Amino acid sequence: MAEDQSPASPNEANTPPTVSITVSKGGKQLDTFQLPEGAILNDLLIACEDHLTGDSDNKEYDWDKAKFIAKGKMLRASEHGDQSITHLHNTKVTLQVPTVEDIQNLHQSSEAARTREARRQAAHLKSARTSKTASRRRDQSDGEYTFQRVEPLPGFTNAERSRAFLLRLKEDPGIRAAMRKHKFSVGLLTEMDPASNTQSSHEGTTRLLGLNRNRGEAIELRLRTDAYDGYRDYKTIRNTLCHELAHNVFGPHDRDFWDLCHQIEREVQAADWKSGGHTVAEGEFYQSPEDDGLTRRDIIARATEERLRKKQQAEDPDEGGNGADGGSNATP
Questions:
Q1: Among residues 191, 220, 244, 305, which one is catalytic?
Q2: Where is this region: Disordered (predicted)?
Q3: Residue 244 among the catalytic residues
């Protein structure tokens, strides 16, 4: 069987083999370049550079940072410039090359970012220093404006439980905040004997709930129940403590006293919300007699309280004649 084998044309016989690579840039085809068979990556880079030189967009490119994406791999001109590209024959590659303007903008953005970060760091450092200073001052205030001693009633059972109760009052966030704000310093926080501070008559029974001696020398609180078999409600006792702290400033139960007393109560309750408790204080609140008028019950309670004060003063002759500055009472 005969075959027709036509001789190659002189042009085909004299054409050297080439590497054909199609290059796109920015989503658009740039050109298909015909490079010598032994071409390297730098040859393709030079071809692209020549093609873009004098382009209508008049952009100046930073060719040292050029790179090609070919067959899922990144080929950087600065690292792979001498590598052969014959394996890329008849393939499409993507050219990525930044303009000089892009580089300048990037440097400016980086410098701006460093400046912003420096400002943030400086602000954070200043805030940390301020916070540390405020914390140190607060610690100093906590050490000064507080109860210097806490003691349970001697000679009674559950002394440690009473001490824990008193310490809880001392460390109560609201009490601490109020004492810092009003600069209250109390020498002793202790409990009172229920039996010694209860008066009964045909009119009823009056219980002294708290007592402030010499405007902050000592504050006594009625912690235990009348039968000594338990302890009274914490928030009720805390309200009594607010009442007694107000006696650090005012002795008589006048308008000024009740205004301060209610202010301290509100401040203590506000700290409950800030500390996450989200509770409303239960128990007694000391209502100003000037708000509702003095009832017969109030008058009897006041008289009983005065008798109890005189009794306390008589039992404690070392008080220097000052006696108790104030107290809170309850008449069932």
A1: 244
A2: 107-144, 283-332
A3: yes
